[in-house]
TrEMBL record:
Residues 1-81 form the GST N-terminal domain. It comes from Methylomicrobium album BG8. This is Glutathione S-transferase. It comes from the Bacteria. GO terms for molecular function: transferase activity. Pfam families: GST_C, GST_N_2.
């Protein structure tokens, strides 16, 4: 059986858990603790020499990097197809994933990281600057989701798996206490990003979602 190594609060791990549930692939959940340095154990470094979650072990094969794991899962269980079928659809899904990786993830890390690691109010200016970049990206997603149920069109895809946990981490950070000065439109996402919030609810209604969503992540 596939083993999935994941960590509490890791948006990248969540991507993989979502894909496993949506595809109905049975897996053994191997939760690692950041605090206990599990990620730096010899056993885990043999699976991912970078010492990061998520990672997968399937018999004698191992793999890390969340998007690569999504591609692996899609190859072993092709239905429902997460990376599209037609060339245009495939290209669009990959474009959306890469836009998330290059244009949203770094600002998410800067914004949510500052808040979650308790660096406010010292890093207020940096948090506001990254939040503005995040808002620009969320405006793009909002425009897409005003037209379609899912990011790449009418069908759920790997783009949704990639982006959803990143959006959740942003919203969780923006709703923390004493973040009003830096959170901007993120703290009232229902009003400012209604299509994005409706898309979140659509994903949360998918079968198996509850098994992927640790309670401390709920917003
Ligand atoms: N690009 C990687 C990012 C993985 C990553 O940054 N994981 C974090 C948890 S969210 C981690 O394991 N951090 C521990 C560390 O770097 O020591 C992916 O998509 O899988």
């Amino acid at each position: 059986m596939i083993e999935i190594f994941w960590g509490r609060g890791s948006p990248y791990s969540w991507r993989v858990q979502l894909a496993l549930e949506i595809k109905g692939i049975p897996y053994r959940s191997r939760q690692l603790s950041f605090a206990d340095e599990d990620l730096k154990s010899d056993e885990f470094l043999a699976i991912n020499p970078r010492g990061q979650v998520p990672a997968l072990r399937d018999g004698g094969s191992t793999l890390y990097e969340s998007i690569a794991i999504l591609a692996y899962l899609d190859a072993i269980r092709p239905e429902p197809a997460l990376f599209g079928n037609a060339p245009e659809e495939r290209g669009l899904i990959w474009r959306l994933i890469m836009e998330c990786v290059y244009h949203l993830e770094p600002h998410m890390t800067a914004f949510a990281g500052t808040i979650i690691s308790g660096e406010l109010p010292e890093k207020t200016d940096e948090a506001i600057a990254s939040r503005r970049q995040v808002e620009q990206e969320l405006d793009r997603l909002e425009a897409l989701l005003e037209r379609n149920d899912y990011l790449a069109g009418s069908r759920l895809s790997a783009a949704d798996m990639a982006v959803y946990p990143v959006v959740q981490l942003l919203l969780i950070a923006a709703r923390r206490e004493n973040t009003e000065a830096v959170s901007g439109r993120l703290c009232r996402a229902d009003a400012h990003f209604p299509a994005l919030k409706a898309w979140c609810r659509r994903i949360e209604a998918l079968p198996g979602f509850e098994r992927t969503n640790p309670p401390h992540w709920r917003v």
